[in-house]
Amino acid sequence: MERRELGASGVEVSRIILGCGNFGGIGSAPEFFGEGENDEEAFAIMDGALELGITTFDTADAYGGGRSESAIGKWIASRGFRPEIITKTFNPMDTGQDHGLARTRVTRQLESSLDRLGVEKVDVYLAHEFDPETPLAETIATFDGLEQLALIRAWGVSNFDGQQLRAVLELGRPAALQNSYSLLDRGDEQDVLQICKELDIGYTPFGPLAGGLLSGKYRSGEAPPSGSRLATRPGPYEHLLTDETFAALDRFGKAAADHGVSSAALALAWLLAQPPVTAIVVGPRKLGHLEPAIAALELRLSQTEADEIAALF
Predict the structure, then answer these.
(1) Please, what is the Cα angle at 20 between 274 and 218, to 5 degrees?
(2) Taking the CA atoms of the chain, what radius of gyration do you get in angstroms?
(3) Quick one: which of 41, 94, 106, 210 could link to 37 by a disulfide (CB 3.0–4.6 Å)?
(4) pLDDT digit string (tens) for 143-197?
(5) Using CA atoms in the order 115, 71, 202, 27, what is the torsion angle rounded to 10 degrees?
């Protein structure tokens, strides 16, 4: 598995990062806490990922209301292997609990994350959302302080747009940015990717398959499969469910066949071919979902090929 340094942080990550957002829940949504993969299923995914050379795990304190971090911590203790850990904070740990990036809360949340993970430090600590209620200077000073205390190796932000990222850069230097980016979600191409490239900020996109649309699992006019992302949390993707999108997906499916790979593999290979992309976060619901990621690593697209694929959309 190829590895790359995350910006100028000194933290190396595997080019495929294991997304653990479905361990013990479905992301940070309290209504799904306790669902998702149980510990046994999560262990099987982590074991398989490690066998494939994936050594970087991505989680958040609020994923599953803490269950994701706890599963990773139990796995580390039982396997004796310490992956690179990216975790985040902002969202409430349960309905009615506090949220945000105030100094006292960030410090408290990191302490609880370290306890659940069973480690002395995390490799990368991210602000999971922009917090309009807390001065940005307070949050960045807190992150810098945690780095100086060696409780984190590097810090960054997630779900920040270009304007918010530029505001961060006036006060500090994040090592990483993690946003949604895929062939169907290209907003970061307006300015975020250029900022990351120019300033050597590691870029680790999530949502590489746009809720599964780029895997070819959905069909126009048909109900989504039970348990799929569009069946459980369709909100972020409803604007994509148009005739135009499905026509583009048909063209994309043919392009994948021409390359001798699945649609999912080609979508991931396209991301890996983008110069600002350090690594991509892939969140499998079962071990077999990692197969397209490995195929994508083997399919090295030229810039011309990547541009042709982008033009399909």
Answers:
(1) 65
(2) 19
(3) 41
(4) 999 999 999 999 999 999 999 999 999 999 999 999 999 999 999 999 999 999 9
(5) -110
For Cα atoms 244, 247, 251, give the angle at the middle one, nearest 5 degrees: 135
At 218, the pLDDT band (50, 70, 90 cuts) reads: confident
CA distances from 251 to 182, 192, 214, 247, 258 (A): 16, 28, 11, 7, 11
Rounded to an integer, what distance in angstroms lies between the CA atom of residue 104 and that of residue 98? 11
pLDDT, tens digit, 9 for 90 and up, residues 236-261: 778 888 899 999 999 999 999 999 99
Average pLDDT of every residue of the chain? 95
User: Residue 138 carries which side chain, given as an amino acid letter?
Assistant: E
- Assigned token pair, 144: 């810098």
DSSP string, 192-206: HHHHHHHHT-EE--B
Determine how many CB atoms are found less than 10 A away from the CB of residue 199.
13
Tracing tokens 């990351």 back to the chain, one arrives at: 196
Cα gap 121→263, rounded to integer Å? 38
Q: Which two tokens stand for residue 28?
A: 């940070």
The answer to whether 63 is a known catalytic residue is yes
Nearest to 187 by CA among 169, 164, 155, 220: 164
Dihedral over Cα of 48, 279, 75, 97: its sign:
negative
> What's the pTM value of the predicted model, to 2 decimals?
0.95
Summarize pLDDT for 26-48 with one digit per residue, the tens: 999 999 999 999 999 999 999 99
Q: Beta-carbon neighbour count of residue 147 at 10 Å?
A: 18
